[in-house]
Amino acid sequence: MASNAADSAGTSYVPDEGAPIIALRRVTKSYGEGATAFLALKGIDLDIAAGDFVAVMGASGSGKSTTMNILGCLDVPSAGTFQFKGVHVETLDRDQRALLRRRYLGFVFQGFNLLARTTALENVELPLLYRGDPRKERRAAAMAALDKVGLADWWDHTPAELSGGQQQRVAIARAIVTSPAVLLADEPTGNLDSERSVEIMRLLQGLNRDNGITVIMVTHEPDMAAFARTIVHFKDGLVERVDTQHAVGDVPALI
Amino acid sequence: MLGTTLILALRSISRHKLRSFLTTLGIIIGVAAVVTMVTLGQATTIAAQKSVSALGSNILQVRPGQGFGRGGGGPRPPDFKPADAIAIRDQIAGVTAVAAQAGTSGTAIYEGANWSTTVNGTTNAYFQVQSWPLAQGRIFTAAEEAAGKSVCIIGNTVNDNLYRGGSPIGTRLRIAGISCDVVGLLSKRGQGGFGGDQDDVIIMPLKTVQRRFTGSTDLKLMLVGVDQAYASSAVQASIENLLRERRNINGGKDDDFSIFDAAQIAATLTQLTTLLTGIVTTVAAISLIVGGIGIMNIMLVSVTERTREIGIRLAIGAVAKEVLMQFLVEAIALSMLGGVIGLIVAQLAVFGLSGVMKVDFLFVPQINLIAFGISALIGVVFGYFPARRAASLNPIDALRHE
User: Fold this and answer.
1) Does the beta-carbon distance from A113 to B312 stay under 8 Å?
2) What is the mean pLDDT of residues B258-267?
3) pLDDT score of B68 more than 60
């Protein structure tokens, strides 16, 4: 049933140039068993090109969060394939996916998710600690990332001493300190006022444009989605529509 | 990887100082209790052995009556006669010397200073059996012993109290109404068996004491020196047989005298203190286990409380093993920290209590090492379960956890 739904309603989006960094094929995801089973994804086909800036939109329950979890290698599809840089992620085990996240992915969350009582620098350093970088390089890279988000002077402040916008920028610094290929952002501006939101979006745009990081961002707000190059609309566990707002390489207009 | 997890664990501990301290409190108390109990137990054993060996090694004490007291009921058993002492010395193989004793007590006076002390009447054999050399002067001459001359050799405590550090040799002091010439000063011996001060004594020839004080030739105590080459139990049995014969004790009747072997008493005492130490150590060890459970409890709470943090770590790319290691290392570091503090507390407690219990301060490296090792082991055992729980969390659920 899942694959039928994919055949009839699944929309595939293939960018004009280059091999996609992400390719989902007939991806389904169900939770629970038997009569109480719930089909969150009904057969998704989706390609995302390297260097794209994608906004993911849709009502809650539309399957966008489930898709983000799969794209973030935090979850695996129930059926179908997910290739990341040509690797079939659905065949990897838990630890292999963790290593893939460590190497290629950066995460930014709505609730910032910084470690409490931990300085900005130490928060940003964390992914490098797991990578086993030596102390000196760790410090230098973390400071560079903080500098990139404009918080170099705030390195020794703990989250409690930072504003929401600053916390989110520290979280972005943490996400990019490993120079990931893809940055996954789950409603990064959901907890911020519009002024801070625009700052964060500009930051993400800059990272996308200057560092070639592919950005995939979930958002409810059309204003925020306007910063993206591509918008993927989810509805009822399927990709409803994909809008390309700008050509690859174009810098969208800033509000 | 160990370096990373160690950094993470130490950061986490230092960020929750109060919680960390409370967590380790169980281990601190447990380790301190075990080390203190074992150390004090050993110190007590050593002190007991010292006390008993102060009674003299290779010495048999022969007394009239059973046990240390006279015993209740019945006629009082007779004291020994000088001939008993001679018979033991001459007839039993393995006896090096027999020091017969008779005693009294009285006040010693010298130039206005007075001191209440014990007078011990004995022979020169006493110094040999007790291996107790003089500090100054000489032992009794044969003529003094034979004639029961009024001469004395004084102990260190008596000297301190009557002469205030000066030399007593050649002076004349009064003891219980008679005057005597001081010919010798005993070397210092310190505390004796069961707390008595051995140096608080004046020694006079046996005959002098019998003639001037007790008025009879009865002997209350004989100290028998045993040759190292002979088993003291065999010598003891021979003396028992000889005395039964001499005192006409037949067949099934019980002895009306007793023979103590200091080595035997020491062995019994050691057994007893070892047993007691074992019991209190077991109780202390249980408190150590309770401390371990405390660590597990807090670590489990910590895992729940830090679910979101674990989710962040997993999302960032920590593999399950790294999360497991972080929590495990955290538990081990906490319990080892508790172990170190516990050891410090234990030394302080031993120092304080050894003063109260009047035993020497003791540092036993083995028990300290063992207790520390156990505290680390507790970290591993009781830290593993919470750590595994942390590592098995699903990152998505963990991130959503409020």
Assistant:
1) yes
2) 80
3) no
Tell me how close the Cα of B391 comes to any Cα of chain A, in angstroms. 11
Task: Give CA–CA dist A159/A114, Å, rounded.
Answer: 7
Distance from B399 to chain A by nearest Cα, in Å?
8
pTM, whole model, 2 decimals?
A: 0.69
Residue B26: φ, ψ to 5°: -60, -45
**Is A103 an interface residue toward B (CB < 8 Å)?**
yes
| B240, burial (CB in 10 Å: exposed 0-12, middle 13-18, buried 19+) | middle
**Which tokens go with A146?**
């903080």
Chain A residues near residue B399 by CB distance under 8 angstroms? 109, 113
Q: What tens digit of pLDDT does each residue of A198-216 get? A: 999 999 999 999 999 999 9
Hey, is the C-beta of B4 within 8 angstroms of any chain A C-beta?
yes
Taking the CA of residue A244 and the nearest CA in chain B, the distance in Å comes to 29
Q: Domains of chain B: which residue ranges? A: 2-51+267-400, 78-255
ipTM: 0.85
Q: What pLDDT digit, counting tens, does each position of B16-28 carry?
A: 888 888 888 889 9
User: Does position B391 have pLDDT exceeding 50, yes or no?
Assistant: yes
Instruction: Tell me what pLDDT residue A5 has.
Output: 35
Summarised one tens digit per residue, pLDDT across range A137-178 is 999 999 999 999 999 999 999 999 999 999 999 999 999 999
Q: Which domains does chain A have, with CATH numbers?
A: 2-244 (3.40.50.300)
Query: What is the share, in percent, of chain B residues with pLDDT greater than 90?
Result: 23
Count helices and strands (H / E) in chain B: 13, 10
DSSP reduced 3-state for B247: coil
A74 close to B (CB below 8 A): yes
pLDDT at B345 over 50: yes
Q: What whole-number distance in Å separates Cα of residue A110 and Cα of residue A185?
A: 8
Beta-strand relationship, A20-31 and A38-49: antiparallel
What residues of A are in contact with residue B313 (Cβ under 8 Å)? Answer: 126, 130
Say if A248 is an interface residue toward chain B (CB within 8 Å): no
The two structure tokens encoding residue B132: 């107790």
Give yes or no for B313 touching A (CB within 8 A): yes
Coil/strand/helix, residue A33: coil
Tens of pLDDT along A11-62? Answer: 333 434 457 899 999 999 998 887 888 899 999 999 999 999 999 999 988 9
Contacts of B1 in chain A (CB under 8 A): 132
User: In b/e form, how buried is each residue of B245-255, taking b as 16+ CB within 10 angstroms?
Assistant: eebebeeeeee
Closest residue in B to A176 (Cα–Cα): B316
User: Which chain B residues are within 8 Å of A115, Cβ to Cβ?
Assistant: 309, 312
Going by their DSSP bridges, the two strands B59-64 and B221-226 should be labelled as antiparallel
A132 part of contact set with chain B, CB < 8 Å: yes
